[in-house]
Specification:
The strands form two sheets. Strands 3-4-2-1-5-6-7-11-8 form a nine-stranded mixed β-sheet, with helices on both faces. The protein has a two-stranded antiparallel sheet with strand order 9-10. The radius of gyration is 20 Å and the shape is globular. It starts with a strand and ends in a 7-residue tail after the last helix. It is about 25% helix and about 25% strand. It has a single domain, classed as Stationary-phase Survival Protein Sure Homolog, Chain: A (3-Layer(aba) Sandwich), CATH 3.40.1210. α2 runs parallel beside α3. It is of the alpha/beta class and about 250 residues long.
């Protein structure tokens, strides 16, 4: 199996290195990742300026390609320029911090997996709850088990999945939940501060937290310490509204 591995935390991130080591048991891994952290850039791409990339080494060991661009840029270049052959699987992560709920829409980690799915390649995003002393190796073991289980189910080419791992699952029993993405609004507050020159600036606080919900989702399952798996779809068409909009005459002009 040929695997393209990327992330949004940058090519030197420990989560990327841990996942690379784990994925080698599945096949040949090519690493193409942003040269610097790109958290929260969503599905941004570079097209007004040229992209640069360089090979990165750790001593004599070749790490991969560092792309001076977004996670989506890295996947595009990886598939079209740097992978020896077209990959069978695109994996993005391990991200330092969960990508659940509406954060999926902002996430560079998830966007990289979406880009892989655009190419018709089965793609996954893997994220670990933030911890300053995160055990990425254990998280990679869990992520690998989930990936093996997914591949055993032979998903259709271009399938897209989001995996989130809470820190509680790293030291205790691992319980997987297949759940939908939460769309509850949260994280709308900013803290107003003043800089030394007297100018106001604003810092996002991620408050308030997601509201409680009677329905299980990635957010509620993660709060209960469960590993979550969510199938995603990048088609944003509201199909329920197509017929209503198409009905009746439209008078334009």
């Amino acid at each position: 199996m040929r695997i393209l591995l990327t992330n949004d935390d940058g090519i030197f991130a420990p989560g990327l290195a841990a996942l690379e080591r784990a994925l080698k048991s599945l096949g040949d891994v090519s690493v193409v990742a942003p040269s610097t952290e790109q958290s929260g850039v969503g599905h941004a791409i570079t097209f007004l300026t040229p992209l640069t990339a360089k090979e990165v080494f750790d001593g004599d060991r070749r790490r991969g390609w560092a792309v001076d661009g977004s996670p989506a840029d890295a996947v595009k270049l990886g598939i079209t320029e740097f992978c020896p052959t077209r990959p069978d699987l695109v994996v993005s992560g391990i991200n330092a911090g969960l990508n659940a709920g509406i954060n999926v829409l902002y996430s560079g980690t998830v966007a990289a997996a979406i880009e892989g799915a655009f190419f018709g390649i089965t793609s996954l995003a893997v994220s670990l709850e933030w911890d300053e002393h995160a055990n990425f190796d254990r998280a990679a073991e869990i992520g690998l088990d989930v990936i093996r289980g997914l591949l055993a189910r032979r998903p259709a080419a271009g399938s897209l999945f989001n995996i989130n791992i809470p820190t509680r699952s790293l030291t205790g029993p691992v319980d997987l939940r297949v759940v939908p993405m939460s769309v509850a609004r949260y994280g709308e507050a900013f803290e107003r501060r003043v800089d030394p020159r007297g100018r106001a600036y604003y810092w996002a606080t991620n408050e308030p937290p997601p509201p409680p919900s009677p329905h299980e989702s990635d957010v509620t399952a993660l709060a209960a310490g469960k590993v979550t798996l969510t199938p995603l779809d990048y088609d944003l068409t509201h199909r329920g509204g197509l017929d209503d909009l198409a009905a009746g005459p439209w008078k334009i002009g």
